[in-house]
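Two proteins, back to back. First:
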Amino acid sequence: MPRFSAAGTTGASTARRSRSRYPQKSRHPHPAAPHHPSASLTRHGHLMTLVRRAVGSYGERRAAAHLSAAGMRIIATNWRCAHGEIDIIAWDGDVLVFCEVKTRRSEAYGPPSAAVVGAKARRLRRLAAHWLATSPVHPRDVRFDVVAVWAPRRGPTRIEHLRGAF
């Protein structure tokens, strides 16, 4: 049994003790994308998180373009605070609209709008209240919309705008 000095270790046991029982993950988990900030692996070793973020980002850009073309004035996208994120905040006339964008590549799990369930609606309401409390904007009316985006691998992208979804 090695003896420890006042400094904590002996020279012989230092090398052995410095190795962790649970090795740290590499800072660069995948050699194909070592410097990308969102190159995180799933437990199966795929860069699916990167793909999901790219699909979601694409859907949000398409939704913003769709809302702008419909005459809405976008004032914020991807607004973040410690409690979460609001995808799009826009004016529709004199109504302030908080939009949740859901993007899917297929309908295998139902339409994208079906993913906005009670918990997500409550979270978006709390985020909207926080945004309103920290903003100089004081609208008369507020509305919560869902923009569903279908972005298949092949074929055209479809967008459905559900006004006053919850």
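And the second protein:
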Amino acid sequence: MSRQIKLFIGLGNPEKKLENTRHNLGFIILDEIAKSENLSFNSNKIINTSFAFLNSFNNDRIWLLKPMISMNLSGGVIAFFMKYYGIDPDEIFIFYDDFSIQFGECRIRTSGSSGGHNGIRSVIEHLHTNNFPRMKLGTGPENLTAALVAAQFKRDHSIRRQGEDLVAALVAAVMTSAQFKRDHSIRRQGEDLVAALVAAAMLPYASFVLSEFNNKNNKENEKINLIKRTSINVFKTINMFGIDKAIYMLANKKL
């Protein structure tokens, strides 16, 4: 049975110029959740946070947290808040943008690597674990394909060489699965290579990610509203029935 989620976190950037961009979707969603619960955020500039709270059905306090610092450094703020209030990694739930998922789609994961997302990487590094629930909010364009990654991979010789070296190391390591499990350096090289490939492939779309939402674009508004509704329903489902129920409902498109 999954533990109760005590802390919901939105990853974003506090800069005004990024306020209404795809890369700030974690903040946007947390604002919508707060609005749906008639909550207001309080700021604490000493620990760089903006937070709100409500009481659960069991009368336990549930927190909403926005780290008011560069997204790439948010892990330290989150770890401090969790330690102060005695919250464990499996009792948090993070909303964040994911460029590898098509705009409008959402996915829940209970653990996993950063996938190249620097905000999640920071959280993993400061919590010393990747076993915490999170929800990926799709921000990617419809025409994002594997062909782009392949083309970039062919051009970037340093990444290609890293890939060749990694493959050779993996072939040697997977002679026994036990060896692969023990060799953390190879596993970390694999994660770093994937992150490098993602970063290289996404570079042409950097301006797209940081561009503001077009409020006059009906199709874009529909996708944003879909993400908002889905996220609010996930939040409510987790609080009422637990994260396992939310995962099931989202996977079966019932949220």
